[in-house]
Design goal:
Blueprint (H helix, E strand, L loop, with lengths): L1 H14 L4 E3 L6 E3 L4 E4 L4 E11 L14 E9 L2 E8 L3 E4 L2 E9 L15 E7 L1
Parallel strand pairs: 1-3
Antiparallel strand pairs: 2-9, 3-4, 4-5, 5-6, 7-8, 8-9
């Protein structure tokens, strides 16, 4: 068991533990850009890279189309890293796991031209 998990923990140490949050399967976790959710029992790490696009309707405006936000995620499982672009309220497969984007904050406002990259937060849930 130690031989199997040691390389995973070494990779986490190289990636910077301060940017990693431990979580469990099924538990929502909120990440800032650059932060990772780590599920040690599953040897899985999911990093919030950033926002690929944000065309959501401002929360203080009535729109015919609500728009969408697409986040960029990087997942590492069994020494293999994969890249994913996932819309809010949708999921991506990472091996035998499903990573669901539950929410992307902050909502857009009509008074705001753009949201700074550092201000985004994504709430994820990882399940089998």
């Amino acid at each position: 068991m130690i031989r199997r998990t040691l390389p995973f923990f070494c990779l986490l140490a190289l990636g910077g533990c301060a940017d990693s949050l431990e979580t469990t399967l099924g538990a929502p976790v909120q990440l800032a850009p650059g932060q990772s959710a780590v599920i040690e029992d599953e040897e899985l790490e999911v990093r919030f890279v950033g926002v690929a696009s944000d065309s959501r309707c401002p929360s203080d405006v009535a729109c015919l189309w609500t728009g969408e936000v697409v986040v960029q995620l990087a997942a590492r499982k069994a020494g293999r890293t994969t890249q994913h672009e996932v819309r809010e309220a949708q999921s991506a497969r990472v091996g035998d796991h499903t990573v669901t984007v539950l929410q992307v904050l902050p909502p857009r406002a009509s008074s705001q031209q753009t949201i700074a990259r550092a201000d985004y937060r994504v709430t994820l849930k990882v399940a089998r």
